[in-house]
Amino acid sequence: MDDRRRRFEELVLPHMDAAYRFARWLSRAPGDADDVVQEAILRAFRGFEALRGSDVKPWLLAIVRNCHLTALKQQQRRAFVPLPEEHDAEDGQALIATTPDPESASMRLDEQRTLERLMSALPDEHREVLVLREIEEMDYREIAAVTNVPIGTVMSRLARARAALKTRWQKEADREPHALR
Amino acid sequence: MPCADASRVQAYFDGEVDAVGAAEIERHLERCADCRALLDELEQLRAAIRRDLPYINTPPPLRASILRALDQESLDRQGAAPNARPRSEQPGSWRSRPFWKGAFSGFGATAVAASLAFLLLAPPSANPLLDELVNAHVRSLMPDHLIDVVSTDKHTVKPWFAGHTDVSPVVADFAEQGYRLVGGRADYFDHQRAAVVVYQHGSHLINVFSWAATDASLPKDSSRNGYHLAFWKAGNLAYCAVSDTGWDELRGLVQLLQDLGVHDDRQ
């Protein structure tokens, strides 16, 4: 393995899972995420020289986001595809982590599906800041680097995203009291 | 009407304010019920997201496919410009950044480091079979070497062996007992094509090697370089499970496989 490849594996590939998760949340279909993350990592490898002094994870996730946007544009140009109403059952299952307590398993499954569905239904710019902050645990500066907006915009989007998710979650809870503790 | 300090409460919640700012906000929180409620909501939402949303990792087939694409890309680059390395690859240009940060956080990198350490440091042992097995195990941990047939279904793995190895070992998924079937691989050692079944236990991988047994007795269970090797015979096959898990965990899988082997023979 050559030197460049080795450095790439050491620096960038530890973030492959984060890249994949981010792609999954950006894309509507899992297959799209596969293509996006593969393309992103190849692009990152080709543009490895551009990475200088900056943090690796925001750099890689910014590439993932660009690849996603490019793919989205191509899809829109090709055909007008209606967005799926929700994930199909099998896909939802595959996403869900194991639950420790079997007694509350079905209830937890409901909650997981509810929150996942609500997140998926958020506008893209809301969903992405929430994922970067709460799941990838990035700070404002890093989120700004990934989403290519000023930190002030990150803060206001994050506030709107949280408020929107909370409102929808609350509505859901009012409709199905058991879905929320 | 939300409090004018709401955005500062969010910044405080996200750990984005310094100690002085934090103290100010904490004083404000004592006085402002709206902001206390907001902080509470933020905490609930974060807890729900981290508890209920799936934390998914790259599926192994996709990871393998990406590594293959990188191999191809590396080859293309070398072929296209064998002498013209980009300037930034010159020594020095990347040393300013924290090189080791994250370098060993990936499974692949750790495995490569472990394998390099092993290959460099391991003294030859009296029993070459042990060396061969540990070598094969370590080699399997390198990127793209672990699995030839990815499957959690024994009905996929077992027939695959028929065409690719000289033996047909027991294959089963023990996910319920904590040993998840990950896939299978053909490996060459002891002068024959051995079958390897790969299990995952927690974050550890266990390779179960199997090959046609001879009359010679198998080595005793032993440890080499941090890896445990458990041997047994079943029918006309010799088995060896290799992993860096504890002995108890490794023997747990061995027991399950032995029980199953007895069952298989009756069929």
Strand arrangement, major sheet of chain B:
1-2-3-4-7-6-5
C-alpha geometry of chain B: elongated
N-to-C series of helices and strands of chain B: HHHHHHEHEEEEEEH
Identify the CATH class of the largest domain in chain B.
Answer: Alpha Beta
Taking the alpha carbons of the first and last residues of chain A, their distance comes to: 52 Å
The helix content of chain A is over 70%
Helix count from the secondary structure assignment of chain A = 9
CATH architecture name of the largest domain in chain A: Orthogonal Bundle
- Average pLDDT reading of chain B: 77
Fourth CATH level, the homologous superfamily of the largest domain in chain A: Winged helix-like DNA-binding domain superfamily/Winged helix DNA-binding domain
What is the molecular shape of chain A? globular
Which percent range describes the beta-strand content of chain B? 15-25%
Number of domains of chain B: 2
Q: Which features characterize this protein?
A:
heterodimer; A: 181 residues; mainly alpha; Rna Polymerase Sigma Factor, Chain: A; Arc Repressor Mutant, subunit A; 2 domains; 9 helices; 0% strand; globular; B: 267 residues; alpha+beta; Phosphorylase Kinase, domain 1; seven-stranded antiparallel beta sheet; 8 helices; 7 strands; 46% helix; elongated
Structure write-up:
The complex is a heterodimer of chains A (181) and B (267). Chain A has helices at residues 3-11, 16-26, 30-46, 56-78, 89-95, 105-121, 124-135, 140-147, 151-175. Chain A is mostly helical and 181 residues long. Chain A folds into two domains: 1-83, Rna Polymerase Sigma Factor, Chain: A, CATH 1.10.1740; 87-181, Orthogonal Bundle (Arc Repressor Mutant, subunit A), CATH 1.10.10. In chain A, helix 2 packs parallel to helix 4 (56-78), helix 7 (124-135) packs across helix 9 (151-175) and helix 8 crosses helix 9. The longest helix of chain A has 25 residues, at 151-175. Chain A is globular, with a radius of gyration of 18 Å. By secondary structure, chain B is α+β, with helices and mostly antiparallel strands. Chain B has two domains: 6-52, no CATH class; 107-266, MucB/RseB, C-terminal domain (Phosphorylase Kinase, domain 1). Chain B is 46% helix and 18% strand. Chain B contains eight helices and seven strands, in the order H-H-H-H-H-H-E-H-E-E-E-E-E-E-H. Chain B has helices at residues 6-13, 19-31, 33-52, 60-80, 107-121, 128-141, 154-164, 247-266; strands at residues 149-150, 180-189, 192-201, 204-212, 222-224, 227-234, 237-243. Chain B has a seven-stranded antiparallel β-sheet with strand order 1-2-3-4-7-6-5, with helices on both faces. In chain B, 25% of the residues are buried. Mean pLDDT of chain B is 77; it is low at 82-109 and 118-125.
